[in-house]
Amino acid sequence: MNSSNRRVALVLIPLIGATANIALAQCGSWRRVTKPPLAQAPVSSSLVVNAPALAARLKEDNTVVIQTGQNREAYEKGHIPGARFIAPHAFVVERGGLETELPSVDALQENLESLGISDDTPIVIAGDPLWAARLFFTLDYMGHGNHAAILDGGVEGWAEAGFPISTTTPIVSKGHLTVRPNPAVVAHTEDIVAQRENGTIQLLDARTEEEFDGRRSGRGITRAGHIPGAVLLNWTEVLTDTGHFKDRDSLAHIFEAAGVQEDRELVSYCRVGHRASMLYFIARWLGRPVRLYDGSYQAWSQGSTHPIATEKPSRVPDGR
After folding, report:
1. Which of 122, 210, 244, 251 would you call most buried, defined as having the most Cβ atoms within 10 angstroms of its Cβ?
2. Which contiguous run of DSSP H or E holds residue 93?
3. pLDDT digit string (tens) for 85-115?
């Protein structure tokens, strides 16, 4: 299943429900789908909600919707009412030849505040699932991840459930966001070198089987293969064919079947730290301690003394 067909949105739920200083201007129009909402009861957990639960929340507080993706086209065609757009370059940068790295805290704070985000602002992130997951990780790093949840089914699921879609572009007042960086959620190459062999971490490779066993490399990879000791868990396994999350019991089984052990801290990686963001989020949803190796295999392969492996996985994930 192509990642462009995945629909995921993230909901960040603050600890305080004060009213945000947000001014909206009507610059477009609303449209409501003609079919009635699906017979679906509101469902929510600390990290995942469905469309009815989000609709109820939008009526109750000052939730802000943020949509992300490679361009504004999908957003301009229609979005959840009041949504603001953020491009990936606002929360990832290229640094030292590595493609997908965290920007400075100051830059992240400025970009988030420009969306009208303050300490007490509930947020909904909608759009491409992998960029949404990467933004979730970024907010976790910024100290706001404990307020996050995923809107199952994304913008398309929202519309299919009969809720309104808008082409209105909101104008927002700048927010005031207190950031509390949490570098503990980020793994670096030196961490992997130090902890890989002592049994304290378990590496999750979110890529394809062909990348894992070295048959395929990818841009910036100098030596194909994987980090020794890693288990393969293709990120696409966590979603159904309709782009919804599999239930938590199924996800826990997928982790177990891939060889993920209960007593290890998890470290997810992929080529550049993009696809790994999805496994990072799922591990958080399952209540597992997890970090994301931001440099990922691109950084690892460029270290001439770092060992690599090319054996096939003991279990082939059900990747699509």
Report:
1. 122
2. strand 93-95
3. 999 999 999 998 899 999 999 999 999 999 9
SS3 string, 248-277, reads HHHHHHHHHHHCCCCCCEEEEECCCCCCHH
3-state secondary structure of 67: strand
- Find, among 3, 297, 273, 9, the residue nearest to 141 by Cα: 273
Cβ distance 241 to 320 under 8 Å? yes
pLDDT value, residue 89? 95
Tell which CATH classification among 3.10.330.20, 3.40.250.10, 3.40.1190.20, 3.40.50.300 matches the domain 3-166.
3.40.250.10
pTM: 0.85
- Within the chain, all domains assigned CATH 3.40.250.10 are found at 3-166, 183-301
**Helix, strand, coil percentages, rounded to 5, for the chain:** 30, 20, 50
C-alpha pair distances (Å), 26 with each of 81, 111, 167, 168, 262: 11, 23, 9, 6, 50
**How much is the average pLDDT of 240-269?**
93
Superfamily of domain 183-301: Rhodanese-like domain (3.40.250.10)
SS3 281: helix
